[in-house]
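Because discrete structure vocabularies remain unfamiliar, we turn briefly to a single example record, giving the amino acid sequence and backbone structure tokens:
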Amino acid sequence: MARRGAAGIVFGRQKGGAQCAIVVEIASVDQVPARTPEVASPGPQPMTTAGDMFAPPVNRAMKVLDRSFFQKTVPTSAARIFSQRDISRCRNELDKSKDTLGLNRIQPIRPDPNEERAKAGGKCIILRPEVLHNDRNTWSPKLRDLEQAGAVGVIPFQLHLDYNYFTYPEIMNAIIEPSEEHDELPVGFALAGHVAHLNLRDKYLPYKLLIGTVLADKNPMVRTVINKVDDVGAENQYRTFQYEVLYGPDDMDVTLREQDCTFQFNFAKVYWNSRLHTEHERLCGIFKEGEAICDVMAGIGPFAIPAGKKKCFVYANDLNPESFKYLKDAIRINKVGDFVRPFNEDGHQFIRAATADLLQARHRVPVYSKKKVSRKDTNREPLKILEQPWIFSHYVMNLPASAITFLPSFIGLYSNVPGVSSDEVRQLLARTNTPLPMIHAHCFSTKSDDNIAETQEICAEISRQLNYEITLNTPDLQVWDVRDVAPKKRMFCASFRLPEEVAFRKV
């Protein structure tokens, strides 16, 4: 939730975990602390012995997955139900008395361990580990009442667990020892379509094939598991990365949905980060119908396509020809061609060229009711006509490694537009009561508890690039904490209104 800092700057922390139907985000591999298996308790009463009892067997030497190793038989007790008519009643009463085994992954109602009874449809209910079949002192009053009434009998029960029962974190804990050397277990990943994307630290590379196999086994949506082998943007200006396949086919053509939009692309050829879905939603939530948006580093359109669906007029650009190709595909698939225009240009030149084009372009889009009408009805009237604005309301620059260095392109943005004088732009802004645009520049910085120092450093760099002072007290300034990237690295979005002195400076 956003919070207001001491100097009036708004800070915010993105809360992870929310997912759409196909794009799944789980905590970063490098950020999830080591943890032991968690076992749900049957109601509020803690199960003091269940942690060890239901954990998988341990094998620290395993490097190639042996599923047959993960077998375990847990000795427990069960309530044998003598009449099938009493199954539901006994289950409800034993649940209320907290006698039933309360593990989410275990179905407590099982066939009777006696083969003849099982063939006749006999059932039993597995009880929590503290209930011993040969010690009535461990029985609850309700269990005693049911036994005395002849509804149930308490018997020993051998509960068999296998590889299918244990979760991915539990298997990892059984193989990789959570010591000081292995202080963080690889229990997280990002999912784009059917591809699970890992970023394994060097110390886990000996386990990489095993990790990929278990991850795919435990996540039905996963068909391919990959591990990044370099830093995004370090070797490639398009922010693509080298990868190795840990499991499944080398198939990087994915389809996914975000913000009710469909995207189809090759994950190896473009930049896509599932962990930014909350940031995509946050910024798109700011945009209003009929506004003009300039998306300078649009990628395949995670900002541009949802904005187009909101009936914003979007100029969307990316330098990567592959991103440009898939951006055009997304415009077609999501039917936003009336509102989103794709470009494949250098971002520095695009900022000025798109601004000049918008000032002189004329574009009107009729908006019709969503109610289905007959194809023969060619005379239906639109609900309204949306006219493309002359001025962008927002510039989005989602290139955190270098977006701030693009800010000099805004110096004199309206002072040297071909065919339009700066006085005409001023008059247009005044006549239409239009504020100067907001700039949203993503960037990296260090991390702290309050982000005050980081915000000051970001403001100082913006000031240096614009040759104009931006401070914590600048109106409309917002430095948003997007997400943690690494132990000492955080991604921010610096949003501020383009200063008039900068926009109309003579250059």
User: Anything to note?
Assistant: The radius of gyration is 30 Å. The chain has three domains: 21-36+167-255, 50-161, 271-503. Residues 271-503 form a domain with the Rossmann fold fold (CATH 3.40.50.150).
